[in-house]
Amino acid sequence: MTPSVANPWFFAVFLAVVLVLLTVDLGVFHRSAHAVRLREALGWSVVWVVLSVSFGSWIYVKFGAQAGLEFFTGYLIEYALSVDNIFVFVLIFSYFSVPPKLHHRVLFWGILGAVIMRGVFIFAGTALLHAFHWVIYVFGAFLIFTGFKILQQKGEAKVEPEHNPVVRLFRRIMPMSSGYEEGTFFLRRGGKLVATPLALVLVTVETTDLIFAVDSIPAIFGVTTDWFIVFTSNICAILGLRSMYFLLAAVVDRFVYLGTGLGIVLMFVGAKMLLGSVFPIDIRVSLVVVAVILTGSILFSLLHPGKAQK
Asked: Which of 79, 87, 143, 159 is deepest in the core (most CB within 10 A)?
């Protein structure tokens, strides 16, 4: 494992705080299933952003400007990529006709699974970079390819669960109930374990996030190879994904040029990784470039909404 600005105790405390926040979220504020209203979603979105910015500010003060700016750059990239996740989640919930009151439950367990999966990805990627430096060029080339592919697709996302091999396997090995059974994922009938459609939705969400992680995590490594900053910036961004979903789900299709902006950002980060040894780009420049591209794509979407109306 490569050296980090933080020692393992900081990592342990960070994980403990995340688990406490998630427990309070589900066990106190969302104990009973209900449709999340706009005001509630806005409040939680502000809470998660304030917590993340406060944590990033602590990193800035504790470990220096370089580490702090790396955190905020990684956080901004991952947060922007999360908007793409939101559009896909909207399509998944629509495809399976999930009742609105159950959306939060699926997203909660989906985010918890994402924390575990991304943790594995990040530590594996860090170990690879430490053992084989040339892997960073593979990551860089992959990001340029992914960004170019996004530009070709013009940011349009497709969800086809019937073609998802994991979903098809799950349907084959697990007996299914016909209804959502008030938000449970599994139940017993006649002594046999039966999955509800909500479990199938969760499987779809998790496999979709796995695909997104393949794109987003190499992008963070393009900003820094410090495993603590990579992990915390990534997790801080996805923790706010649920509330952001309820805040933006109805209007996310208006950000029609955000996909283009994300494609350009990924290509920029990929080029930064490939050219880092001969043409290093200061983290301040990277942060400004990423912020300008993403802000510009959002503003352009709002000023030119014609594409969304077609």
From this structure: 143
CA angle in degrees (0–180, nearest 5) for 226-232-234: 100
Asked if 231 and 53 count as a contact pair (C-beta separation under 8 A), the reply is no
Whether 1 maps to a domain, the answer reads no
Tokens of 302: 């709002």
Q: Angle at the Cα of 115 (from 113 to 121), degrees rounded to 5?
A: 105
Q: At 222, is the secondary structure helix, strand, or coil?
A: coil
Structurally, how many domains does the chain consist of?
Answer: 1
Q: What would you report as the CA-atom Rg of the chain, rounded to the nearest whole angstrom?
A: 20
CB 262 within 8 Å of CB 76: no
Judge whether 269 and 78 are in contact, CB under 8 Å: no
Burial class (CB within 10 angstroms; exposed 0-12, middle 13-18, buried 19+) of 56: buried
- What's the pLDDT at 306? 57
- Residue 200 inside a domain? The answer is yes
Alpha helices in the chain (DSSP H): 8-24, 38-63, 65-95, 103-131, 135-153, 165-173, 197-221, 227-239, 241-248, 258-275, 283-303
Which CA distances in Å does 202 have to 76, 170, 205, 298?
26, 11, 5, 29
Q: Per residue in 233-246, pLDDT tens?
A: 988 988 888 788 88
Cα separation, 303 vs 152, whole angstroms: 22
Structural domain span for residue 123: 8-309
283 in a structural domain: yes
125-168 pLDDT, tens digit per residue, is 878 877 777 788 888 888 888 888 878 775 555 566 666 777 78
Looking at the domain assignment, is residue 178 inside a domain?
yes
Nearest to 153 by CA among 298, 257, 82: 257
Neighbours of 307 (CB within 10 A): 13
Query: For the segment 6-34, what is each residue's pLDDT rounded down to a tens digit?
Result: 677 888 889 888 888 877 776 555 556 66
Q: What is the pTM of this model?
A: 0.79
